[in-house]
Design goal:
By secondary structure, the protein is mainly α. It has 27 helices and no strands. The longest helix has 31 residues.
Length: 695
């Protein structure tokens, strides 16, 4: 029982990333406070000024995401500069309310717009906004500015120490945690299959099985992105690791077909759950032990008269052994070499967009309008607490790309605040006056808030609002009216953000989904066309991992942008989007298997067969391209060409006298890829229902 819950925990937090991030943030805040509280007491400055150090520590821990470690370190050390500049501006203009508010809007616009210049400027803009905001919150005087700057420096250094020294993501640690996470994901997948076997009519359990498969792909994608940031591995080591991660992912995903055939077998009965349970028990052992356990289970089932079920169990056992081989290789010895010095930071690319076409400019205008409206409405609710409306209007735009995403985020923030206000009142009533308990509660809320940040924005908001109860108690300003004002100001800020998203340069969610689907199709086209060209010109198919991961990245963008439509819309609209996403996921799945099969096939066949493989890949690329704005030929013409070439390949495969070969496997995955391309064309309205699948 404990092992199952531990696997669920590992599967929910790939490589323990959320746990380590929350620990870094919390320890950074604790270290900054530990440095600043005695320093401020010695300095004769108010202790609440240490909050600036905590804010900079949080932003430095979470916001710094440059491509390599050296650039991350530079950005981390630069964090106090925009914070100090914003603090100075806020303090100097505080006596003039109108100028103070107008300058705040300028800071907000600049902090949002500068992210277009690269990943370094996103955290620098955020910390500038937070510096100005907390100067309004704390109302410091000019003589206190040196203490505030010292707190900002302490916060940045604390985050630096925790991220790059104490809790550094070393390659061996990341890989070992990633291996455990992938295995836990597979355990979760198999447990989901057993649940389906025990409840054959449960649609909910089948959806859970699908969700488990999706999370497995997301975990693999996250780990491969992490591999690219490991500066102690050379490029050859990174490529080998990416291939091993892909092998594990495909081995796990390829279990689903024999598993579901076994589950849905008419004569399976109670045999299936017991068979799967027996194989689950040996999943962590050596491949040979899995094969032996599979043989014993299959023989016992065969003796009971279920020959077909026994055959399905043998296929399942072979897949599990293949998975064990893949995970064993993932955990094997790796050569770690010192990486070459990173290249100079690349200049931001100019994508040709100008003016209001730039998403950064559009968002900056939206955020500025939203916060201006929040200032006006917030002052009507509470003249002294309106800045809470402003921060809500600002943060609901962070990491949102459409008005649907913003609506969801605004609702989650408001809901989390409502519950957090209640919890904050209860917490503050118990610990106000006990400084140690207040600091401990603040740190606990910081940890839980940022641990659940990637899981639920509403849960994060709940803990941050609860934290405010303890914080106001420590500042000596707590009363129920303060948290009530926080609640109403949050609602006002969320409403301001929604109004700006809907009426000021709106980006419709369905339009964003369509754009992301087109990007996915173009990535699929490039993969198919590039693979065909490599086979034709070089006679190999070994450099496919990068293109494949670009395809997976594009798929994740589609899935993320479609969440507001698949989770919060009417059933008819939700089903339509879900169908499209499911077909796209099928495309990515078949293409991943095709890439592995082709790598082994092209070395084993003659030039004529390689040319036909290239022609089929090019025809499929043309068919995919016909669904985009860059279409050169019609879908029907492209698929007709694909049918003709596929028939020739089938004839070649059937002429082989020996058993199934790598060519047979490649043709099978090509057939399935062509089928799902045809399904996608019908889903997007690019083909007529009469079209037949290849093969």
């Amino acid at each position: 029982m404990w092992s199952e819950w531990w696997n669920r925990f590992l599967a929910s937090d790939p490589s323990l990333r959320r746990l380590r991030t929350a620990a870094r943030v919390t320890l950074s805040v604790a270290l900054a406070i530990a440095i600043m509280l005695p320093l401020l007491a010695w300095w004769g400055q108010p202790l609440p000024l240490a909050m600036i150090g905590a804010v900079v520590a949080i932003n430095s821990s979470l916001g710094v995401n440059d491509p390599d470690r050296r650039q991350q370190q530079i950005t981390n050390l630069l964090m106090p500069l925009p914070a100090a500049f914003a603090l100075l501006l806020s303090i100097l203009t505080a006596p003039w309310a109108l100028l103070h508010s107008l300058l705040f809007l300028v800071v907000i616009f600049a902090a949002t717009y500068i992210r277009r210049f690269g990943p370094r400027f996103f955290p620098l803009g955020m910390v500038a906004f937070m510096g100005y905001f907390f100067a309004m919150f704390l109302s410091p005087q000019l003589p206190q500015l040196p203490a505030l700057i010292a707190a900002a420096v302490a916060g940045a250094l604390s985050a630096f120490v925790m991220r790059f020294v104490v809790l550094r993501d070393d390659p061996e640690g990341v890989l070992e945690r990633g291996r455990r996470t992938l295995l836990a994901q597979v355990h979760g997948l198999l447990h989901a299959v057993r649940d389906v076997a025990e409840h054959l009519d449960s649609a909910q359990r089948r959806r859970e099985l699908h969700n488990r498969s999706v999370r497995l792909n997301e975990t693999s994608l996250m780990l491969e992105n992490t591999v690219g940031q490991l500066d102690t591995l050379d490029e050859a080591g990174r490529e080998l690791l990416r291939q091993r991660l892909l092998d594990v992912e495909l081995a796990a995903e390829n279990l689903l077909t024999p598993l579901m055939r076994l589950v849905d077998h008419p004569s399976g009965g109670d045999t299936v759950p017991h068979a799967i349970g027996a194989l689950l028990a040996v999943l962590r052992t050596e491949p040979e032990e899995i094969r032996e356990a599979t043989r014993l289970v299959a023989e016992r089932i065969e003796q009971q008269g279920s020959v077909e079920v026994a055959m399905a169990v043998r296929r399942l056992g072979a897949g599990l052994a293949e998975l064990a081989d893949a995970t064993g290789e993932l955990g094997g010895e790796r050569q770690v070499e010192e990486a070459p010095e990173p290249a100079e930071e690349a200049e931001p690319s100019d994508d040709g967009e100008t003016g209001l076409q730039r998403p950064e400019l559009r968002m900056a205008i939206q955020v500025t309008c939203a916060t201006a409206l929040a200032i006006m409405l917030g002052q009507l609710v509470s003249p002294n607490r309106w800045y809470w409306a402003v921060i809500t209007a600002f943060v609901v735009f962070i990491s949102t790309n459409s008005r649907g995403e913003l609506l969801v985020r605004a609702w989650q923030r408001t809901a989390g605040t409502v519950l957090g206000v209640v919890a904050g009142i209860l917490v503050a009533a118990q610990i106000t006056g006990n400084t140690l308990a207040e600091i401990a509660m603040i740190l606990v809320c910081v940890f839980l808030g940022f641990y659940f940040a990637g899981y639920s924005y509403a849960v994060m908001t709940f803990f941050i609002t609860t934290l405010l109860g303890a914080l106001y108690g420590m500042l000596g300003t707590f009363n129920v009216a303060v948290l009530e004002a926080r609640l109403w100001e949050t609602a006002v800020g969320a409403a301001a953000g929604v109004l700006a998203a809907v009426f000021v340069l709106p980006t419709r969610t369905r339009s964003l989904v369509r754009d992301n689907i087109q990007d996915f199709l173009l990535s699929l086209r490039d993969f198919l066309r590039g693979t065909g060209t490599e086979i034709s010109e070089q006679g190999t198919a070994n450099g496919l991992q990068e293109s494949m991961r670009e395809l997976d990245d594009a798929l994740q963008r589609v899935i993320n942008s479609a969440k507001p439509l698949t989770s919060y819309r009417l059933r008819s609209l939700r089903s339509q989007v879900q169908r499209s996403v499911a077909v796209l996921s099928g495309c990515a799945y078949y293409v991943r298997n095709l890439a592995v099969a082709l790598s082994a096939t092209v070395d084993m066949v003659d030039d004529d067969t390689r040319n036909r493989l290239s022609e089929l890949l090019w025809a499929l690329a043309d068919a995919v391209e016909s669904m985009t704005d860059e279409a050169q030929v019609s879908f029907e013409a492209a698929m007709t060409s694909a049918h003709r070439t596929a028939d020739a390949l089938h004839d070649i495969a059937e002429s082989l006298t020996d058993g199934p070969t790598s060519l047979h496997r490649s043709i099978r995955w090509l057939d399935r890829t062509a089928q799902v391309v045809d399904d996608l064309a019908r889903e997007l309205g690019a083909a007529t229902p009469e079209k037949q699948p290849i093969g």
